[in-house]
Amino acid sequence: ALVESRDRVGSVAVIxxxxxxxGIAEVxxxxxxxxxxxxxxxATVRDARQRIEASTDRAVARDKLTAxxxxxxxxxxxFTTNLQECLTSDIVxxxxxENLELKRQVLxxxxxxxxxxxxxCTNTSSLSVTEISTAVSQPSRVVGLHFFNxxxxxxxxxxxxxxxxxxxxxxxxxxxxxxxGKQAVICEDKAGFxxxxxxxGYLNHAASMFEQKYASREDIDAAMRLGCxxxxxxxxxxxxxxxxxxxxxxDTMYRQGRDRLHAPSPILKHMATxxxxxxxxxxxxxxxAEPGSPEIVADDHVATQDAMEVSVREVTxxxxxxxxxxxxxxxxxxxxxxxxxxxxxxxxxxxxxxxxSIRRSLEKARQRGKIEQDAVDAAVGCITGTTALDDxxxxxxxxxxxxxxxxxxxFPAHFPIFLRTFLAKVLVEAEGDQEDLI
Length: 438
Prior knowledge:
- The protein is an alpha/beta fold.
- The protein has 17 helices and 14 strands.
- It has helices spanning 19-30, 42-61, 67-75, 100-111, 129-133, 167-179, 195-211, 217-228, 234-241, 243-257, 266-273, 305-308, 325-336, 348-367, 373-381, 417-430, 434-437; strands at residues 11-15, 34-38, 77-80, 91-94, 119-122, 142-147, 156-161, 183-188, 287-288, 296-297, 317-321, 340-344, 383-386, 397-400.
- An eight-stranded mixed sheet has the order 3-2-1-4-5-6-7-8, with helices on both faces.
């Protein structure tokens, strides 16, 4: 019966109108559902209304909504401090602050008010959904529904089931998430669920690297943005999430799973305790123009070229040792940038293959409109191949990019890995016979 009626959700109650609760209420109302937006604090309710009005105003200004659609969204949201409004709701989404006892208290208080058919959703990012579910008389009707911030923008949600959650309840909520324009994944009630378990281990390690002075904050972030193609570096992301929130999430996951990966880096607690909570406080790993602003401003931790007092050596000629995939790519990058490149390969045949590979790559780029023919010719003209290391005597910079392909070689099982690596390199350099060498 539940599955048959899942398309007839009448109204949704959202309890807790902080940043996440407000965003969830807006998302649900945007997709045609009536929403009871509830918080016990009058000021919080008033702020939530203003945030949704401002958010939908911006959507109208960007032609994402019409004035009529905006009006309809606001009409579908009832802002109130009266918990009795949950009585007519089919789904109750709890989004109060990330505190286990507080969440249990809210659900327990509502348990005697709402009808038995209601589905309970808790928007926790790290707490045990199983522990939260024991606050109500029907734990089988409780799921985690983890939205990501900002809820109106992020299309992803996690549906978290416990060992007693009814399968029909999970299916009902999966369909509901589709109806509000979200892509859901379903997971078990494990520490951090899916996304946070992966994400916060990475963020925590980045904070530890900064604390241990591996590199500057800018270089740690640049390594992940430029090297891994991520839209934001880990330290900037920690600032966006909030260092206090990040610490709480990590601490909760560590307490649940005891995985050292999630043991919070001490710097997170120290900074949060000192009020350096990230963007929302105006200062975290970076300093911002004002609290809540995304604009990063210079501070005492910025390492400038002038402050480092180093002279930059001019480089006009480059040598590359190697002819494999990485070496070929490096040669092309330098040549496209206008440097004169001399590369060393093991044979004339390999020299020819490298130049042919670079020509093909440049031609593909030209066909896609990314480079002009003149630039192709200029890049090819910058490249010289040789088999003699002596030809690198006069270059300004040498890049070693030799490749050792271990997977093509076999060694006796008792050979330690360091010896295998050493012998493989010798074999490649000598271009000898593997059996004779061993």
